UniProtKB/TrEMBL annotation, chain A:
One of its GO terms (molecular function) is ATP binding. GO terms for cellular component: plasma membrane. It comes from Thalassospira profundimaris. This is ATP-binding protein. Residues 5-250 form the ABC transporter domain.
TrEMBL record, chain B:
It is a multi-pass membrane protein. InterPro entries: AA_ABC_transptr_permease_3TM (IPR010065), ArtM/GltK/GlnP/TcyL/YhdX-like (IPR043429), MetI-like (IPR000515), MetI-like_sf (IPR035906). This is Amino acid ABC transporter permease. It comes from the Bacteria.
């Protein structure tokens, strides 16, 4: 089976500061990979590279057999793809953000429908049906006519997840989706993510919830200073960390 | 002070005053509509990555904002025809008021755009929207709702500025008031009534716009 996502030799700098120093990562369909590590280790940047919210200077990302973001021209020069191409490739990934980023002037269902109508060119009725289905799935059907400002953080995040996943992406990216939530709201969002994982959705997630990472992941990747420092199954990473760095990190994290 | 107030001449001419008020409102509405378009373009210009666009938009905004509006009105009406751009009085005034409003609204929109969270654009990108669709479907509608109170203030200012149209003999409320004044010599009565009409009109506009703001505001 060919991998759904292949990241090879990925380098990324913000000016002088190199935040990703050669990342190699492969995911199969149905994999749930958690990226853990202290802040500044590059895990969020890596996630943002996968849906081209960040550009990168070196290396390649292949998604469902297609190189994303860049192509090589005849002279072997690396060129950024056109905006339209990039937009199409972005729609192959779904992203849920730490700050939810719902569109505040649209109801929950409108938020979910927008991409279906504008990107997928779906007729309105069909888009509404798809949106209803996914809002139902995340337990938000009863609030589909509420505006984001009328919803709790946990509810907003569930709508945001529905918005991303309704686009039928090849892979879902979760960027610390519970970090901005009050503690009592974390569980409802994690339940939704877990539900998707059980359902076989391919997911790459950045998280600080170690217990959750251990429960849902097929693989856990520990990042440190822009590199993959250690990776393995949840049992290996949490049960028998090899490197001192990971042992230290886990000792300071709540499990 | 012995002054016999006599409002007869004003009541006899109320139709003219109403007509003038109506024209003033019309001028303000058309100008703010065009001004919003210009202001939006200028705001995006000022925030553009391209130096030349920033330059053009910034130059326009400071040039207009640092020129008295009366001078602009006279320039457009008397000087532009010499340069081959001849507009009739009303078109010339709408043109002037629109570019004037555009410059002020550009600043309003620019700060509105800068205040939007970066995540909105990224969320749009993440669902595969192009920059243009993000602007038209998300950025502009959200920004517009956020700046509605400033927009209302600008509209009221603009409505009051229509009184300057009298300077080029556009028959607005001020124009007719002056006419009545000249013909009747009822100085105090004329300008008192004209002022009152402006006050009441502005008050009503403000009230209407506040209701509109409430209806359009982002619910929370």
């Amino acid at each position: 089976m060919s991998p759904i996502l292949t990241i090879s030799g990925l380098h990324k700098s913000f000016g002088e500061l190199e935040v990703l120093k050669g990342i190699d990562l492969t995911m199969q369909r149905g994999d749930v990979v958690s990226l853990i590590g202290s802040s500044g280790s590059g895990k969020t940047t890596l996630l943002r590279c996968v849906n081209l919210l960040e550009d990168f200077e070196q290396g390649s990302i292949e998604l469902a057999g297609e190189k994303i973001g860049y192509r090589e021209d005849g002279a072997g020069q690396r060129r950024r793809l056109s905006e339209r191409e990039v937009a199409r490739q972005r729609a192959m990934t779904g992203m849920a953000f730490q700050q939810f980023n719902l569109f505040p002037h649209m109801t929950a269902i409108r938020n979910v429908m927008l991409g279906l109508i504008k990107t997928k060119k779906m007729p309105k009725d069909e888009a509404r049906a798809v949106a209803e289905k996914w809002l139902e799935r995340v337990g938000m059907a009863a609030r589909s006519d509420h505006y984001p400002g009328q919803l709790s953080g946990g509810q907003q995040q569930r709508v945001a997840i529905a918005r991303a996943i309704a686009m039928n992406p090849q892979i879902m990216l979760f960027d610390e989706v519970t970090s901005a939530l009050d503690p009592e709201l974390v569980a409802e969002v994690l339940a939704v993510v877990r539900d998707l994982a059980v359902d076989g959705m391919t997911m790459l997630l950045v998280t600080h919830e170690m217990r959750f990472a251990r429960d849902v992941s097929t693989k856990v990747v520990f990042m440190h200073q822009g590199r993959i420092h250690e990776e393995g199954t949840p049992e290996e990473i949490f049960g028998a960390p090899k490197t001192e760095r990971l042992q230290g990190f886990l000792a300071n994290s709540e499990i | 002070m012995n002054y016999d107030f006599n409002f007869d001449v004003i009541w006899r001419n109320w139709e003219l005053l109403a007509e003038g008020l109506g024209l003033g409102l019309f001028l303000a509405i058309v100008s703010i509509a065009i001004g919003c378009g210009i202001g939006l373009l200028a705001a995006f210009g000022m925030l553009s990555r391209h130096k030349i666009l920033r330059w053009i938009a910034g130059g326009y905004v400071s040039a207009i904002r640092n020129t008295p509006i009366l001078v602009l009105i006279l320039f457009c009406y008397f000087a532009l025809p010499q340069l081959g751009i001849a507009l009739d009085k009303i078109s010339s005034f709408i043109f002037t008021l629109s570019i004037y409003a555009g410059a002020y609204l550009a600043e309003v929109f620019r700060s509105g755009l800068m205040a939007l969270p970066k995540g909105l654009r990224e969320a749009g990108l993440a669902i595969g929207l192009t920059e243009f669709k993000i602007k038209t479907n998300i950025i502009i509608p959200v920004m517009f709702r956020n700046v509605l109170p400033s927009l209302s203030n600008n509209f009221i200012s603009l409505f009051k500025d229509t009184s300057l149209a009298a300077a080029i003999a556009v028959p607005d409320l001020t124009f007719y008031a002056r006419k009545i004044n000249v013909e009747s010599f009822r100085v105090i009565e004329t300008w008192m009534v004209a002022s009152m009409i402006y006050v009441v009109a502005c008050y009503l506009i403000a009230w209407l716009l506040r209701r509109l703001e409430q209806r359009l505001a982002v619910p929370r």
